[in-house]
Amino acid sequence: MRNFCTLLTVVFVMVASGCEKNNQRNFPNVGFEEYIYLNNPSNLPLQNIGGSITHPGGYKGLIVFRRYLQNANDFAAYDRGCPTHYKQECGQLKLSDDGNFAVCPCGGEQYLLFDGSPSTDAKISLVEYATNYNGEIIVVRN
């Protein structure tokens, strides 16, 4: 019985030490559908690979980025709510000067627009929404 208790204690300690803080967020889930027309002058940056814009929609607005994976018609859309400061007034992401990063004004966190991952000490990625592209219009929805 003593060996069983010792084994149980060891297993408990191993499991407990392997647990990490849950990095999930309670980001608001809003339903929307936005249409982004590439021929609109305000959306011209999206005609080039690596181009990005901000657009209304989502929780605090959208950032749309034209990626360049295997297909030049691959777009990503992220919520402008900063993953760690979305409840705060300063928690609306801004585009970096080169348009490749989203920057949180609250804490200075930066996120790669290519995949939404943090490029600084932030632990949580951007909230990404589904996109469809038909050659003229990008549809972003949640």
Describe the structure in your own words:
This protein is α+β, with helices and mostly antiparallel strands. It has one domain: 3-layer Sandwich (Rieske Iron-sulfur Protein). The chain is 12% helix and 27% strand. The chain contains one helix and nine strands, in the order αβββββββββ. The strands form two sheets. The protein has a six-stranded antiparallel β-sheet, with no helix packed on it. A three-stranded antiparallel β-sheet has the order 5-6-7, with no helix packed on it. β2 (52-55) and β3 form a beta hairpin. The protein is globular, with a radius of gyration of 20 Å. Residues 3-23 have low confidence and may be disordered.
Descriptors for this entry?
142 residues; Rieske Iron-sulfur Protein; 6-stranded antiparallel beta sheet; 3-stranded antiparallel beta sheet; 9 strands; globular
Proper CATH architecture: 3-layer Sandwich
- Strand percentage lies at 25-35%
Give the beta-strand count: 9
Uncertain segments are 3-23
Short characterization:
With 142 residues, this protein is α+β, with helices and mostly antiparallel strands. The protein has a single domain, classed as Rieske [2Fe-2S] iron-sulphur domain (Rieske Iron-sulfur Protein, 3-layer Sandwich). It is built from one helix and nine strands; from the N terminus they run H-E-E-E-E-E-E-E-E-E.
